[in-house]
Known about the structure:
three-stranded antiparallel beta sheet; 24% strand
Amino acid sequence: MNAIVLxxxxxxxxxxxxxxxxxxxxxxxxxxxxxxxLDVWGFAHGLPEHEGAWDRSEVIAAAVGVGVQDAEPILDxxxxxxxxxxxxxxxxxxxxxxxxxxVAPLLIGLGxxxxxxxxxxxxxxxxxxxxxxxxxxxxxxxxxLWPDLWSACEALAEAARxxxxxxxxxxxxxxxxxxxxxxxxDLVAHGAAYLDHRASxxxxx
Length: 205
């Protein structure tokens, strides 16, 4: 399986008077220029209409499509800074990534209309950003309660075993992680979650 691309950090907007865009990553505000790096970081989130895995070739193609010059070296620089990661599901590297990162939910749960099989996430009274399967909603709803993604996957696997499930895709933490990575791409692309460094104590003084 090819490596997927995931963005790290939470966009904070433009800071004046410098005019820089800022992404908060952990406790650190990271300035980004809007003439390339911000666009490439944005496209690392994926596109809501895209189905399937989102990888570096698609990030580069999307950025080039809106006129970003040197999209590939910009992406490599973001990877070096930790603002973007490449993860291959089912590998030791995926577990290492999960041990150092966490997910934080965005948007609001909108429930499931009568007769529907998908739950909604969005802004009440305004828009539905995403309708997703229950397991994807489970990631959005619960995974942030643990300090890192690997701990969340272990807990979700244990919960499935406690219900009597014999499905390894639900009960084996490594297979749960592979599912979670795909779910995160969907959630992030629709603005329903963001990824950050694992939880740590705040700075003192």
